[in-house]
Design brief:
CATH architecture of the largest domain: Alpha-Beta Barrel
Pfam family, one: Aminotran_4
Strand content: 25-35%
Number of helices: 7
Organism: Capillimicrobium parvum
Family: Belongs to the class-IV pyridoxal-phosphate-dependent aminotransferase family.
CATH topology of the largest domain: D-amino Acid Aminotransferase, Chain A, domain 2
Shape: globular
Oligomer: single chain
Helix content: 25-40%
Largest sheet: 9 strands, mixed
GO molecular function: D-alanine-2-oxoglutarate aminotransferase activity
Cofactor: pyridoxal 5'-phosphate
Bound molecules: pyridoxal-5'-phosphate
Length: 287
Amino acid sequence: GAAYVDGAFVPVGEARISILDTGFSRSDVTYDVVAVWNGAFFRLEDHLERFERSCRTLRLSPPYDRAEIARILVQLVRSSRLRSAYVETICTRGVPPPGSRDPRTFENSFFAYAIPYVWIVPDASTTGTMDAVIARTVQRIPVTSVDPTVKNFHWADLTRGLYEAYDRGATHPILLDADGNVTEGPGYNVFAVSDGTLLTPAAGVLEGITRRTVLELAEADGIPVSVGPFGEDRLRDAVEMFATSTAGGVMPIVTLDGAPIGDGAVGPTTRHLRERYWAAHADTRYL
Ligand code: PLP
């Protein structure tokens, strides 16, 4: 892989940042992740737009504009020589000038790296599946200082959820919020199919670009969609479930708390949307 640090392209293993960078020391940072699939970015413009919006919300000003970042990413992927890559952009508040705590005086940092495409689930494009649990030991606690729609590094709840899933013999947690509403998991949004309708939470989750793609494809195919709050009882009634992420696309969930979902096989709606998702990678509208 390759990284972009301090204006230079370097092998990812050689990339270094300052221990004083507030992205590291204060989680004062936002990021985005876009995939390159077979040599082409998937929805790069949408990812850059979300990154820009996240920066604006946190009053971060990356030292480059959108077009410059796009050029950096193209060069980064070229220098990585990867055909399919996981490409992360990061903007931090930067290193404080000596003695200053006034964020207006900080020069914000921009970093990026490209590494081989990351799969949350192995073989997710064809046969990979997930075994999920509803997390009991941890809630998705919105970091009060960060809007959940801003991609952030506050992963303590998500990581604790992962430990719980493994402790309970599963692989992937689904976190509820304090009101018992379904939210998301570590790096993925969650969908259920119930009564012929595709359900996904609306609020308190990251507005995933993969989630958006699935909603667009469902709409184009006339699949009824309901975007709004629902509790774990709706998940238990579901005949199909899946998770979505830039790292793996549409990933079927086949068990919940140890019990099969539907008949325990990948259902027709999930299979259809997974095929449509990967086919969209050749659709010029998304490039
Ligand atoms: N939810 C969280 C908390 C995430 O970190 C991510 C992506 O990393 C997602 C959902 C999925 O978003 P996207 O489809 O844009 O990758």
